[in-house]
Each structure stands twice: as C-alpha cells, then as structure tokens.
Amino acid sequence: MDMRPMMKGSEILKAAAVQILALALCALSPLMAVSAASSISGESCVNCHQALVDKGRGQRYVHAPFLNNKCTVCHIEGVTVSSANETGITGTDADSEDEVVWLDLPFHRAQEHWIQLGEELSGSTLMIKAKGSGYRPAVEKISLPPLSSLPLLNNDLNPPRLSEIRVTDVRKAMTVSVTLAWNTDEFSDSEVRFGRDELNSSKKVSTLTRKHEVTLVGLDPGKIYQYQVVSRDVHGNTARSALLEFDTRRNLIDSGSGNAAPPSTTPTEPGWHLYRVGENSSYLLTYTAPLPVTLDIGARAASQPLPTAETAHASESTSGHPLLKTSSDTNISICRDCHQEIQEKYSHPVNVLPPPGMEIPQEYELMPDGRLSCMSCHSAHGSAFRYRLVKSGKADLCRGCHRNY
C-alpha cells in the first residue's frame, strides 16, 4: 500500500508547471547557446586580447564592430555580415587555412562565373565560398574527377564578338587613370594594348566575363594615347578591335548612357557544372548564383579527408578556439561585403603583388604571400587618422610607396 501523502490539486499544478518549464528550457537550450555564443564571443576575444583591444580603442578613429565587441563579424568563420552590418550565425562548415590552398583569383562580382582550372588539380576537392549582399551560403565542396570523364566543351572556332567599346572614366590625381569597357557575346578574358606612338604597353585581366572593364594607371596627363582591346575565349579564339584613341587632357566620368548591358543569353539555373576544355588540357567550372556574388575557391589535395560536422566540432572544442576566417576573408572580402559603395576602379588595387622593385614601408601590412590588401593602407582596428589610414593624409599614403610622384 502506498503510504505517501496525497498531493493537493494546487501542488499537482505546481509540479506539472515545473516539469513543463524544464522541458521548455531543454528544448530552447540549443537556441540559447547560439544566442549566448553570438553575444559573448566578442567579450571572450577581449578577455584574451586585452592589450590589442586597449591599443585599438585608444585611437581617434575606431572600427565600429571592434568598438562594439563584434569581433566575430570579421574573424570567425560561420558569422555572416550584410551591408547593413547585421550579423547571424550559420553552420560552421569550414576548413582551416592550413589545409586548403586558396587560388589567387581577381576580384569579380557577378551572377555567373566561369573559372578555368589546370589539370594538376585532378583528384582534389574544390572549396567554394560565394559571398553577396546579405547572401553567404554554405561552403560548396566539389570533387574534381579525371578530365577524361567530363563532357567536352564545344569549340565553335569563332572569336568573341566585340561591342560597345568605350572610355568610361578619365581621372587626374597624382597620375592619370583611364578606364576602358566593352562587351562580348561569350565569356572571354580582357586585355588592353596601349601607347603614345605605338602599342608598347598592355594590361591583361584573366577573369572570364562578357562585360569587360580594364583600368590603366600611371598615364601621362595632357596626352593622346592609342589603344586596342583584345578578348580570348577559353579555347584561345581571339578578337581584336581596330586602333582607337583616348585623351588624358580632361576628366571624364561616364554618365551611363552608353553603358549597354552585355548581350542577352538564356538564363541559367543556380548551381555549378564542370566541363573539359580541349583534349584533357583544363577544367572549366561554371557557377551561377541567384544574385551577384564574389567567389573564393580553394583546393584540398585528395589525400586530405574532408571534415565532417563532428570532426570540425571536435577540432574546435579541442583547441578551445572557434575556426577563424582566412586572411583573404579578413583583409579583403569582409571589407567589400560592408563597403560595396567603394568601386575598385576608383581605389587602390588589392589582392595583387607590388610591382617588382617597389619597396613597401613596414607599416603597410601585407598578406602572408606578399599581396596588398585593404589593411595595407587602413589600420584594422583603430588609427589616429581619418578613414583609419596608416598615414596622416592620402598624399603621404601614396608617396610611401610611389616615391617618385
């Protein structure tokens, strides 16, 4: 016979309420953990990096996320940022920078990308990061099969058709820069050959696109230059324009009236495809997104296993530190995500190596492989100078490297 005292109705209700509350807390605990991680992770950074924080916040001009303990926005993989500086936690499905070799691709924001890859990558796994305004899907993993197993991309033997060749911008500052643009009916690279009396200089952009733009810098003011635009498709079929001229005697900013859209093509569904170009000569990766994005592409050797969610979590918990973004993300891509109003043709090139023989001052921070980044001219956290420049003014900043100007 059960000798326990009987519970009153009110006590039964209280006990039931406690149990329901406990169950609710258990159900909500993962969400609470994510919320807590997103809110205190910046404070955790401060606890370990107090000296760095004090130095940065002691400056006159301080990066807003850094000032507000939002270190994760720029540094932690899986935290996304939009142009409105809104952050959110996504599934952390990234690889450490030591395990993936990131390809040196020019900055290119487009809805459709064509990337040609060498046959030496056969058997490796591509890691693709797509980044757009408020859009950052999970890292895509693509295993590269033998070239012989892929469909052959048809070569029609016809060169690209050039159209809408125009000068869109002439700017005079310490030197003169000129931007030239044109369209093609198929994806191809971009080259401008130019000179005063003969075409003795050239600038080439390897990005495959249908809407081309090349900016020439270091030109002489008050002169007339000859130029020719050249585009090659993935098969090497080459189109060359007639000889044309541009004038550096006055500034010019294109009003947009002549900036025609590239020739229309059949819309492509979002996703990726692999093709073989030539007889086992190279891969062609086509990637289409629902909106304009930039791509970071890395390669993992076939001998290195892909991490699962469990191994990634184990690695994170073993080291006690969240997975960090790549140096390219932290120093270039994340800047572009927020500052999309900054057009690259009007600012200093990044993700490029300095010209041979140019001496870079020690305070101009370079990427690990020597490339220039946004942080070469701007302090990451705080500076005594406006725009967080590493020098007191724009002229001093330029003369740090360009001593002859």
Task: Give a short synopsis of this structure.
The chain is α+β, with helices and mostly antiparallel strands and 405 residues long. Helices cover 22% and strands 31% of the residues. The strands form four sheets. Strands 8, 9, 10, 11, 12, 13 and 14 form a seven-stranded antiparallel sheet that branches. Strands 4, 5, 6, 7, 15 and 16 form a six-stranded antiparallel sheet that branches.
Show the helix and strand layout.
Elements: H1 9-48, H2 50-57, E1 61-62, H3 64-67, H4 71-75, E2 79-81, E3 87-89, E4 101-102, E5 110-118, E6 125-131, E7 140-143, E8 162-172, E9 176-195, E10 201-219, E11 224-232, E12 238-240, E13 244-247, E14 252-253, E15 271-277, E16 282-300, H5 309-319, H6 327-338, E17 382-383, H7 394-401
Provide the descriptors you would attach to this structure in a database record.
Immunoglobulin-like; 7-stranded antiparallel sheet; 7 helices
How is this structure best described in words?
There is one protein chain. This protein is α+β, with helices and mostly antiparallel strands. It has a domain at 162-253: Sandwich (Immunoglobulin-like). Helices cover 22% and strands 31% of the residues. The chain has seven helices and 17 strands. The protein has helices at 9-48, 50-57, 64-67, 71-75, 309-319, 327-338, 394-401; strands spanning 61-62, 79-81, 87-89, 101-102, 110-118, 125-131, 140-143, 162-172, 176-195, 201-219, 224-232, 238-240, 244-247, 252-253, 271-277, 282-300, 382-383.
